[in-house]
UniProtKB/TrEMBL annotation:
Organism: Penicillium olsonii
InterPro entries linked: NAD(P)-bd_dom_sf, Sc_DH/Rdtase_CS, SDR_fam
Gene Ontology terms describing biological process: mannitol metabolic process
Pfam family, one: adh_short_C2
SUPFAM superfamilies per UniProt: NAD(P)-binding Rossmann-fold domains
Name of the featured protein: Mannitol dehydrogenase
Presence of keyword Lipid metabolism: no
Keywords linked to the UniProt accession: NADP, Oxidoreductase
Family as reported in the entry's similarity comment: Belongs to the short-chain dehydrogenases/reductases (SDR) family.
Gene3D superfamilies with a match to the protein in the record: NAD(P)-binding Rossmann-like Domain
Length: 266
């Protein structure tokens, strides 16, 4: 059975997430993609299960603030996406606590600066384990639930680095992992075509905790290469996350949304 056309006609009704449960991994930052996606979904009425890995205080604080500001149910969970046991246990806990999952945003990720020649085997494995295998763990853990319910939206935070090899940094492991997630979205869209949609978002350079380590001369170089002349703010992406998890995008699957200030048009 194909995923049906939604009953609602008005755009605000299609975008509404009232009554939906959205999972967002990697939402422990104060200004990252995870917390902004969470703000967007909470604004539109969704209840949220968000995760942290090494920053429990960030995850708990975000959960408390989101619940207070938007009047929705929000719970923070510890989850290491690199571990199957951790992800499957977390997803089971969410289904127990919330009763269901309507959408899953696989956002958690990490980066490491190391090329093939200088980087260690361990550094390679860690990035692939978190950024690529982590998304596989999330999809495998929630996929059966989506199939049983006959509905679901799975959204992956990929990266512009999955399309281009960002310069001058040597981040081959990260680039490869993110390219893999973009193709995972396409492949899963096909695999899950009868019951769930799968899409990815590829942010360009966004000012979040993850990008704080970038040296000023590298940042200046990037600004000269970004047609819009600046980094993005994560709040400029939250509408895209809401759109992809909502019924406003029910005919969209297997697609990657590049949001990069035009970096990749050159
Ligand atoms: P943040 O630091 O805000 O987010 C990273 C999140 O991932 C944190 O919540 C962190 O949890 C979590 N995380 C890291 N490792 C693990 C793990 N093993 N298991 C579970 N969670 C983990 O930075 P961003 O918002 O920048 O990053 C979010 C996503 O956006 C990432 O996938 C990143 O690759 C991607 N991205 C970022 C870009 C940028 O310019 N900032 C550009 C393109 C893509 P904790 O802190 O609790 O350890």
């Amino acid at each position: 059975m194909p995923i049906p056309v939604p009953k609602a006609n008005r755009l605000l009704d299609l975008l509404s997430l009232k009554g939906k449960v959205v999972v967002i991994t990697g939402a422990s930052g104060a200004r990252g993609m995870g917390i902004e996606a969470a703000r967007g979904c909470a604004e539109m009425g969704a209840d949220l299960a968000i995760t942290y890995a090494s920053r429990p205080e960030g995850g708990e604080k975000n959960a408390k603030e989101l619940a207070a500001e938007y009047g929705v149910k929000v719970k923070a969970y510890k989850c290491d996406v690199g571990s199957w046991d951790s992800v499957s246990g977390f997803v089971n806990d969410v289904i127990k606590d919330f009763g269901k999952i309507d959408a899953f945003i696989a956002n958690a990720g990490r980066t490491a600066d190391s090329g093939i020649l200088d980087g260690s085997v361990e550094a390679w494995q860690e990035v692939i384990q978190t950024d690529l295998t982590g998304v596989f763990h999330c999809a495998k853990a929630v996929g059966h639930h989506f199939k049983e319910r006959g509905t679901g939206s799975f959204v992956i935070t990929a990266s512009m680095s999955g399309h281009i090899a960002n310069f001058p940094q040597e981040q081959t492991s990260y680039n490869v992992a993110k390219a893999g997630t973009i193709h995972m979205a396409r492949s899963l869209a096909n695999e899950w075509r009868d019951f769930a949609r799968v899409n990815s978002i590829s942010p360009g350079y966004i000012d979040t905790g993850l990008s704080d380590f970038v040296a000023q001369d590298v940042q200046d170089l990037w600004n000269s290469m970004i047609p819009m002349g600046r980094n993005g703010d994560a709040k400029e992406l939250k509408g895209a996350y809401v759109y992809l998890v909502s019924d406003a995008s029910t005919y969209m699957t297997g697609t990657d949304m590049l949001i990069d200030g035009g970096y990749t048009v050159r």
